[in-house]
Amino acid sequence: MFGTYLGGKATDIGCNTHNLAVDPKGNVYVSVSTASADFATTPDAFDRTFNGAGDVAVVKLSPTGALLASTFIGGKGQDGADGIYVDKAGNVFFTGHTRSGDFPTTPGAFQATHGGAGDAFVVVLSADFRRLLYSTYMGGKADDVGRSACLGHDGSLHVTGSANGPGWPVRDAHQAKFAGTNDRRWGNGDCVLARFKRTTRAEQGAPADADRSDR
Q1: E strands, the chain, where?
Q2: How far apart are CA 193 and CA 156, in angstroms?
Q3: How far is CA 177 from CA 21, 44, 144, 166, 181, in A?
Q4: Whole-number mean pLDDT of the chain?
Q5: How many whole angstroms separate alpha carbon 57 and alpha carbon 75?
Q6: pLDDT tens-digit map of 24-45
């Protein structure tokens, strides 16, 4: 057992159970929303530089609490972390929300450009935290947030979250139209669900296509 702080001089948040994952070896993975430019990163990490108003930080700790890997991911706007999942190869899947028009995406991303006020994002990070295997925006002109992620038995990636207006990308949808009131006082939005299917490229750690998005 261990207990540790994670953070820098500014506000750092990783307060939900879906911000935490554990692999079969007992290593602990945490996705953090951070405003700390001095948040600890590790050599050869994908991004060691704080990018803007708020970044995502992804951290890997040993079963005894030693820092094994840590990286920033984000753009110049406000970015926040939510659900995180680790596969058998140690690749890290996570989601959250971004207000950055320059959030890093990868070639072949399902949605390469920022959709609106706030988008969900879906990211796959290599097991050594050095490479961004896959990254895409998911969203329309309203506020969209990714909350949780998990892998299916067939290797497909499932992401769920919320949308506060129309524009979430849909395909073969059970409910194709936004039904919420888009009331800014109450946030009466819809739940959203996306499934990314695996391909040969995805077997290396990256979902290649959004197979289905349902509201």
Answers
A1: 12-13, 20-22, 28-34, 55-61, 67-73, 79-86, 92-98, 119-125, 132-138, 144-151, 157-163, 190-197, 209-214
A2: 13
A3: 33, 44, 15, 7, 12
A4: 87
A5: 12
A6: 999 999 999 999 999 999 999 9
Tokens encoding 183: 């009331």
Q: Indicate left, alpha or beta for 65 from its phi (over 0: left) and psi (-120 to 50: alpha).
A: left
- pLDDT for the residue numbered 215: 32
Non-local (6+) Cβ contacts of 73 within 8 A are: 46, 47, 55, 56, 57, 58, 79, 104, 123, 125, 132, 135
Name the strands in the sheet holding 79-86, side by side, starting at the edge strand that comes first in the sequence: 79-86, 92-98, 119-125, 132-138
What whole-number distance in Å separates Cα of residue 42 and Cα of residue 70? Answer: 5
Helices (H), the chain: none
What burial class does residue 5 get, using C-beta atoms within 10 Å of its C-beta: 0-12 exposed, 13-18 middle, 19+ buried? Answer: exposed
Q: Which amino acid is at 84?
A: I
Q: How far is CA 90 from CA 97, 128, 129, in A?
A: 23, 8, 10
Q: Which backbone phi and psi does 95 adopt, to 5 degrees? A: -135, 175
Indicate whether 199 pLDDT > 80.
Answer: no
| Total residues belonging to the chain | 215
